[in-house]
Amino acid sequence: MLLDMSLSEIKEYVCSLGFPAFRGKQLFDALLMGKRIEEVTNLPKDLIALVEKEYPRFELVKKMEASDGTAKYVFKLSDGEIVESVLMKYKYGCTVCVSSQVGCRMGCKFCASTLNGLIRNLSAGEILEQIIYINREQGGVAKKRAVTNVVLMGMGEPLDNYINVTKFLRLVSCEEGLNISQRNITLSTCGIVPKIKALADDGFSVTLTISLHASADEERRSIMPIANAYSIAEILEACRYYFNKTGRRLGFEFTLIAGKNDSLAEADKLSGLLKGLACHVNVIPLNPVKETGLSGTAIKKAYAFVERLNKNGISATKRRTMGEDIGGACGQLRSKVAEEKA
User: Fold this and answer.
1) Quick one: which of 115, 168, 220, 298 has the fewest CB in 10 Å?
2) In angstroms, rounded to a whole number, what is the distance separating the alpha carbons of residues 292 and 108?
3) Is beta strand 71-76 parallel, antiparallel or unpaired with respect to 82-90?
4) What letter would DSSP give residue 175?
5) β-bridge mates for residue 186, sequence order
6) Helices 232-246 and 193-201, interaxial angle, to 10°?
7) CA distance 187 to 182
């Protein structure tokens, strides 16, 4: 797929087809602008014919806009599989939440993405195309982009698709491409310890966010199967390793599930775990997913949880719950569309 390639790789590919390198640059620019192949009018027809099979074939299946301005997209891939992306508008710009896999095999009890397991990984280009599509729709082009920030918090576990995700990070942040700084990219993981360390060793500087959701291993294992492989202590050690290598403050996501992990005693335990670590905690009342039987904590209780963390010296805020009226929880809209198709 052409979007899996860097500019130099596309130039080399075009030259191998018998065309000059500048045609590769023209092709690369068309891809970044999100042009459909029929809209690419500055390339020879014989070159178009040769690259047509490798040209992106994303199709928008459904788009829903929430009352808070959040927009959710369901895209059909070239093989018919579907993924979802989310556009969130803030005062500082537009953030796109992208998927990295079709489905997920991590099995977190509160997540809609994992209900049907992992179907396949997305390629680097398929992750990138989610941003390109939304960037074009919002009136952006490569050098004057509308999308300013990216979060890998959509369907899938990014570090379970390490090779494609890291290639995507290089493509989206490269100077000749969309040039979105890695400091404006957040990668969320449930805590695959060796890959956290690999991310640091491979020279990346994205904001690393850990989906923690519990302060003790036993409780974490009850909602997150990954906790059977890596303890909280091992995850925190990997976080310190990442911070020491990159100097980047860490994030922790703590989804509050009613009656499960939303007590002030839990906030105190979490404070003890994170004390001395350069980090910020995003407290998120669970977006309800009907298949899980779990519900989010009351807003008043969420604010009390945040207040206790802050009182204990831990930087924390309650994250805005966005897109709840359009299936805001990750994987919900995709599941609905799949049901409709069936």
Assistant:
1) 298
2) 10
3) antiparallel
4) T
5) 151, 207
6) 10
7) 10
Give the pLDDT confidence of 90-135 residue by residue, as tens digits. 888 899 999 999 999 998 887 878 878 999 999 999 999 999 999 9
Query: Catalytic pick from 190, 239, 279, 330?
Result: 330
The contacts found for 132-139 with CB under 8 angstroms, 24 or more apart, are 132/3, 132/31, 132/32, 132/33, 132/34, 132/178, 133/34, 133/58, 133/60, 133/73, 133/75, 133/85, 134/73, 134/85, 134/87, 134/94, 134/96, 135/34, 135/96, 135/178, 136/33, 136/34, 138/87, 138/94
Q: Which residues pair with 253 in a beta bridge?
A: 211, 282
Q: How many CB atoms lie within 10 A of CB 199?
A: 27
Helix, strand, coil % in the chain, rounded to nearest 5: 40, 20, 35
pTM of the model: 0.90
Answer for the pair 118, 102: CB distance below 8 angstroms, yes or no: yes
**Tokens at 263, concatenated:** 């007590």
DSSP-based three-state secondary structure for 148: strand
Q: Which of 15, 84, 253, 291 is catalytic?
A: 84
Q: Which two tokens stand for residue 48?
A: 């178009």
pLDDT (0 to 100) of residue 342: 44
Cα-only R_g, the chain: 21
DSSP assigned state of 296? B
52 is catalytic: no
- Give the C-alpha distances (Å, rounded to integers) separating 80 from 51, 100, 102, 337, 341: 20, 16, 11, 13, 11
| C-alpha to C-alpha distance for 147 and 10, rounded to whole angstroms | 24
The residue whose two tokens read 């976080």 is 239
